[in-house]
Amino acid sequence: AAGSPAINFAGGCGLTVDERGIGRSDGLCDAGAFEFTPPPVPNPPGPPPSPPSKAPTIASATQSHSAWREGRKLASLSRASKKKPPLGTTFSFTLDQQASVSFAFTQQVGGRSVNGKCIAQTRRNRHRHACKRVLTRGVLTVASHAGANKLAFQGLISQSKKLPLGRYTLLITATNAAGQRSPARSLRFTIVK
Known about the structure:
The chain is mainly beta. Helices cover 0% and strands 40% of the residues.
């Protein structure tokens, strides 16, 4: 073993190989019949992959239906050849690189203008000027690959939460491993009864 006092114990013994025919590379003999052979030094690990140099890009964001009924299935990635379900819609988009894609479902609701801000109506401010404010009803995040992606969606954000009926604006953004975010793509749809 490495560090043994038997290594090179016999000094220059004049033998160039041991009983197995293993050469004595340093010209010195170990005590015993066999020459110690150190294990090979492993190659150092390669450098880690470099992060993407630019933010991801979302192209061709479309949907199969702009008005649809809700179903009971959670959102799921589907293949291009798979038939679309009768309920819900399918969001299609193309990425130039692997990224985490966020789907933010926003809705405009009525409010009242107070101190330059549009807030929810209360008994105290119900006589103020009417305004529209944007609420985010839910967010889905899906790991997506470079190329064409499809997300079948029936209105469920989770097992216990679904979007209420109404009109929506969907904001789609992609974030890569380096934290770089794409510009948002938007789609509008309506969930009907």
